[in-house]
Amino acid sequence: MRKTIVLAAGLALLAVGTAFANEPYLPRTQKGFDKADANHDGKLALAEFTPLAERRLQKMDGNGDKAVTAAEIEARLQEVLKRRLERTMALMDTNKDGSITQRELDKIATDMFNSADTDKDGDLSMAEAHDFKRGVWRKGYVAQPAPSAGTGN
Q1: CA torsion through residues 131, 133, 138, 140, sign
Q2: Residue 19: how many CB atoms within 10 A of its CB?
Q3: Is the pLDDT of residue 143 over 60?
Q4: Which residues, in sequence order, are CB contacts of 22 under 8 Å at separation 6+?
């Protein structure tokens, strides 16, 4: 039950993270930093950061007038939220009945945990969780087609 609560909380945080994904932010990972560091000097200058912020603004500028209104921000957030909702339902609503039951949540939590537990010791280390999130989860687990009807409930 505890892992179910943790998974549900994690999914909720992902949704909250979506809302902030449209604001300019400094790179959070080494890979993001290296990508922003255009001259590869190991430092991020304002001239390297500004284009990142400008690209984020352009993504929200629905009418291309180089000004972003609250309505444009809301429209962008709604698009992102809709895609996240569709991915979540495709992944977790295994019987495609429009709701995620405790049984479906338990199955996805168990499958996720077991996939991340690469040394199969029954526990997750931070490294295993990190590797799963960066590798399996982002590149394959979510992208997998949802199981066919009848495998969930």
Answers
A1: positive
A2: 12
A3: no
A4: 56, 59, 60, 73, 76, 77, 80
